[in-house]
Amino acid sequence: MSVDDLFAELCLTNTHGDLHRNIVSLRRSENLFDDLSSNPADWDTATATEMLAKQTGYASQDPIIHRPFEEAAWFDAIGFPFREWTESRYSNGTYGVWYGATDLETTIHESIYHWTRFLSDPGFLRPGVSQDRRVHMIRCDALLVDLRPRVSTFPKLVSKNDYSFTQQVGLRLHKEGHPGLVTESARCVGDVHAIFNPMVLSDPRQLCYLTYRVAAPGKIDVERTPHEVFLSISI
After folding, report:
1. How do the pLDDT tens digits run along the chain, 235 residues long?
2. Is residue 145, in this structure, part of any structural domain at all?
3. 225: left (phi over 0), alpha (psi -120 to 50) or beta
4. How many Cα atoms are found within 13 Å in the side-chain-facing hemisphere of 234?
5. Is residue 9 in a domain?
6. Within 10 Å of residue 45's Cβ, how many Cβ atoms?
7. In whole angstroms, how large is the CA radius of gyration of the chain?
8. Measuring CA to CA, which residue among 203, 169, 185, 174 is closest to residue 114?
9. Does a structural domain hold residue 34?
10. Alpha-carbon distance values, 60 to 55, 74, 203, 225 (Å)
11. pTM of the predicted model over 0.85
12. Helices and strands (DSSP H and E) totals, the chain
């Protein structure tokens, strides 16, 4: 069946609520200017200078003293994929797509798949290798295309590795100006949201940090509290 067949009978879902966004991040922040001076006052000056020099694409109503922190959170949790385009399930690489999930475990399964695939290419997927992550809660207010009722008829929507069909779907929705879609995850039982318009996302709030660690061949341990296994996933 074709993409036109899929679009012949589509549903919409009125979405007003929080989504989980799982991104790469250090558990402990790293001062980028501490190699220039040992004086913390100099670090503050360098940070302020950087904020004045760089262009901004985010307007805030908050007092100016809070804006650098708010802007950084917005770009980390929302804006990044709309500025750094990459090929993905619903993008051919010519536009950005933001991905979020309704629950924490779905974000873990989805991000572990991509992390382990990245590591396996150069042969780095070995016990002891780890990566730190940060999870944000993001408010989404949009009328989204709901692909979930169509998954059984169009199994390519949840293909493990072949994105050719879903990229056609994403390209059409993006071109026609739809804000996004919700569909079933291809990695676990859960829902994934693909958003094409950052204006429907707001209010980024940090939920938790995670560490992914290769525990054994084919097994990833997830730590929410350092050195305490929160979840184990077989790959």
Report:
1. 899 999 998 999 999 999 999 999 877 655 555 566 666 566 556 555 544 444 444 444 444 443 444 567 788 899 999 998 999 999 999 999 999 999 999 999 999 999 998 888 767 888 999 999 999 999 999 999 999 999 999 999 999 999 999 999 999 999 999 999 999 999 999 999 999 999 999 999 999 999 999 999 899 999 999 999 999 999 8
2. yes
3. beta
4. 0
5. yes
6. 13
7. 19
8. 185
9. no
10. 14, 10, 11, 33
11. no
12. 6, 8
CA angle 122, 125, 128 (to 5 degrees): 135
Q: Look up tokens 């390519």; give the residue.
A: 156
Number of domain units in the chain: 1
Cα four-point dihedral sign 82, 65, 59, 17: positive
Which pair of tokens denotes residue 227?
Answer: 């050195």
- Adjacent-strand bridge partners of 222: 212, 231
- The C-alpha atoms of residue 108 and residue 138 are separated, in whole angstroms, by 16
- One-letter amino acid of 97: V
Q: Contacts for 81-88 with beta carbons within 8 Å, 24 or more apart?
A: 82/198, 83/57, 87/163, 87/167, 88/163
Q: What share of the chain is helix, strand, coil (3-state, %, to 5)?
A: 30, 30, 35
Burial of 9 (0-12, 13-18, 19+ CB in 10 A): exposed
- 107: domain range? 3-29+39-54+62-234
Q: Is there a domain that residue 179 lies in?
A: yes
* CA–CA separation, 20 and 190 (whole Å): 12
Say which residues have a Cβ less than 8 Å from residue 141's Cβ, sequence separation at least 6.
Answer: 15, 16, 200, 202
